[in-house]
TrEMBL record:
Residues 1-21 form the signal peptide. It comes from Flagellimonas pelagia. This is DUF4412 domain-containing protein. Keywords: Signal.
């Protein structure tokens, strides 16, 4: 589960601010937050999606995980993720829905067919600072524009970021039907030093199709994210189908 959380943090933080790799540890603590007062009825009755974006995550040790992102067109403040790898086989499905409007991230654990246990859910407070820029750690990056390339038949623009510890490249499509940045917004006040505001204007409608993060000192902190497919698919997660856990211990209500 530690590896699962790390990858979720990497993708969430990197998509919002592609230079957050140095502070992943502190952001993990921020994502945990104080969640004891969260109640199932705070969530909508359902989270609905109509686009499925499949990606492949590969870490510095060669371990692979499939990460599927779920989006809903229109003015919504949430997105979903489903992760699968060798460690999660036989344990059912794991979905995480991050709701920026409510500042809540919910893990939905769907039991495997034939198992007698309940579908479980866990709500976690999502402090704003967990996904905000950390300009102190980002000010030493050098940014440059990369030649465009085509990924999944989409014309993609590229950006390279480099400092003494990391070399990162990111390609994003500006004509895709869905976007990470529409979920998170485009706060120009928090952009790091050296980051050209014109890139933010381009990326606000962009979908990250490829990301390569190379740690110059420790390979185990390197990773890649590669787009596999983007297709229309109607999906929904219903609150009533899950038993919610209170805090991080014990069971709550089914609502």
């Amino acid at each position: 589960m530690k590896r699962t959380r790390n990858i979720l943090i990497i993708i969430s933080c990197m998509v919002i601010s592609v230079t957050n790799a140095q502070s992943l540890g502190t952001k993990l603590g921020g994502l945990i937050g104080k969640s004891a007062k969260l109640k199932p009825e705070m969530l909508p009755e359902s989270y609905e999606f109509n686009w499925l974006f499949k990606t492949l995550i590969k870490d510095g040790k060669g371990n692979e995980s499939n990460m599927d992102f779920m989006f809903m067109e229109g003015d919504v403040k949430y997105y979903g993720m489903e992760m699968s790898n060798e460690q999660l086989k036989g344990q059912g499905q794991l979905f995480v829905v991050t709701d920026r409007g409510l500042e809540i991230s919910t893990m939905f654990m769907l039991k495997q067919k034939g198992m007698g246990s309940e579908n479980m859910a866990q709500m976690v407070s999502l402090p704003k600072e967990a996904l905000e820029n950390n300009a102190k750690n980002e000010e030493h990056y050098i940014y440059s524009e990369l030649p465009p390339k085509v990924i999944l038949n989409y014309n993609c623009k590229g950006i390279q970021m480099e400092n003494d510890e990391y070399l990162m490249t990111l390609y994003y499509a500006t004509d895709a039907p869905v976007s990470f940045f529409k979920v998170f917004g485009d706060d120009k006040k928090s952009i790091p030093k050296g980051f050209d505001p014109k890139w933010l204007d381009q990326m606000k409608d962009g979908l990250v199709m490829e990301m390569v993060c190379t740690n110059k000192k420790k390979d185990k902190y390197s990773f890649t994210m590669t787009a596999k497919s983007l297709e229309q698919k109607d999906m929904a997660i219903y609150r009533k189908d899950f038993q919610f856990m209170n805090g991080f211990m014990g069971l709550g209500s089914k609502n």
